[in-house]
Amino acid sequence: MTGNRARLMEMRRALPGLAASKGSPLPRLSALLRLGFIAGLLTAVLLAFCMPRALANSLTSGLGGTSGSVTSKGAQMERQQLGKMLKQPKIDSTEPMLLQADEMVYDNENSKITAKGNVEIYYGNYTLLADRVVYDRAANTLTAEGNVSIKDPDGAVITADHITLTDDFRDGFIDAMKLVTKDDTRIVAQSASRQAGNVTVFENGWFTPCKVCEEDPSRPPTWRIRAKKITHRRDEATITYNNAFFDFFGVPVFWMPYFQSADPTVKRKSGFLMPSY
What we know:
It is globular, with a radius of gyration of 20 Å. It is of the alpha+beta class. The chain has 4 helices and 12 strands, in the order E-H-H-H-H-E-E-E-E-E-E-E-E-E-E-E. The chain has a single domain (2-15, 24-262), classed as Sandwich (lipopolysaccharide transport protein A fold), CATH 2.60.450.10.
């Protein structure tokens, strides 16, 4: 199926698979999509992205030790939102999905399906754009590459050069990742990987809630937190920072070789916690 924009629409639980030639792996792709392609992808990408914000709030408010009572509705709502982001998203297999691309190639011999050229995938309020998406049935991997962009229902946008995931979404790798939330909070990392569905590691990452200067986008933000390595362990609800710096107008003013904080799902624990106001 080539030329004139290929479309795969309204994939639902009742649909066993799309019409395809004998031996085509397309029905397997349909099953994969019914698991919730975008929701699963965002699971791997977003699971630990709210961690730097929790740390930043802790540092800027100077709060350590055991968390106290929440006296601000805004702070309480933010905690609930961050905690929700850390949970595995529920995938509705009956949700309709649309996939469209300039070209669809079915390689039965190598068990691969490739969508090429202006690939767009819509699932609920999630959107994924890429130059190319490949599902490798033999390797059980799904790859999106070239100008990859993912937008979630809250307006957060993730961009990357390359994303690779296993088809159960437990493991994955992202190259040149950038996340911009609706309120212009930014998280950037040279790479991010997820292992065994539990550990997410960011290499050479930084976080800032400051807006980019419109006149000079290359200008350093007012402040940011950056680290050589940030590790989120979901089962332990912890975030570990290695070689972390606090920068003010691009100048490092505070450094810690190593420290650990609780993630926003933890309400009471010693150490750095999500602050209350």
